[in-house]
Amino acid sequence: MPRPIIYFGSICLAPSTLISTQEIDVNQSGLQLAQLALANLSYPGQDSKPTAWSSVDIVYGAGWAAGPIPVEYRIDAGGNVSLRGLARRAAAGAGLPMFTLPLGFRPPGQLVIPTSGNDPAPGPGALTATTQFEAVGDVSLLLPTVTQGANADIRVDGVSFSIFV
Question: Is residue 1 in a domain?
Fold first, then answer.
């Protein structure tokens, strides 16, 4: 199972570096602390089956709300987060982010992922969107900039990413 990189002071310990105490130039207690942190790492869904779908702790940004099918998330035993549902632009002039993912369900760095949606403002029609996922949990629409009106939906069905580096 993949393990995240652990930062201990100014020393970065990746799982591949934890082969023996002779291979890392740190003091013994620091190494033991890092090994203990890696051995005891836990996250939701690390058992054999994914967690149940949940929309709890999704925080929608200004002018955004849950769509007809709210955004939901889950995580599997390998640390892979899956998303589904719709974020709806509830008001004209909606800001960023669309929503924020809870701790434990965020990517380790910035991801830009194609998504889709529907924007009824100029006339009903499907749109292809580009959505940015940040390590701080913010999920923002990059392209297209949704037009003036409300009720545009952005679909995150099928989006998946790992919580590990």
Answer: no
Instruction: For residue range 150-162, list pLDDT tens digits in order.
Output: 788 899 999 999 9
* Domain span at 33: 6-39
pLDDT digits (tens, 9 = 90+) for 68-117: 999 999 999 899 999 999 999 887 766 789 999 999 999 999 999 999 98
DSSP result, the chain:
-----EEETTEEE-GGGTT-GGGS-S-HHHHHHHHHHHHT---TT-SSSPPPPB-TT-EEPTTEEE-SSB-EEEE-TTSEEEEESEEEE-STT--S-SEEPPTTSS-SS-EEEEEEEE--SSSS-EEEEEEEE-TTSEEEEEESPP-SSS--EEE-TT-EEES--
User: Across residues 116-139, what is the average pLDDT?
Assistant: 84
Within a domain: residue 124? yes
**Distance in angstroms (rounded) separating the CA atoms of residues 38 and 160:** 24
User: With contact defined as beta carbons under 8 Å apart, do 87 and 67 qualify?
Assistant: yes
- Pair 90, 150: CB distance under 8 Å: yes
Count of beta carbons in the 10 Å neighbourhood of residue 5: 14
| pTM of the complete model | 0.69
Give yes or no for a contact between 94 and 146, defined as CB atoms under 8 angstroms apart.
yes
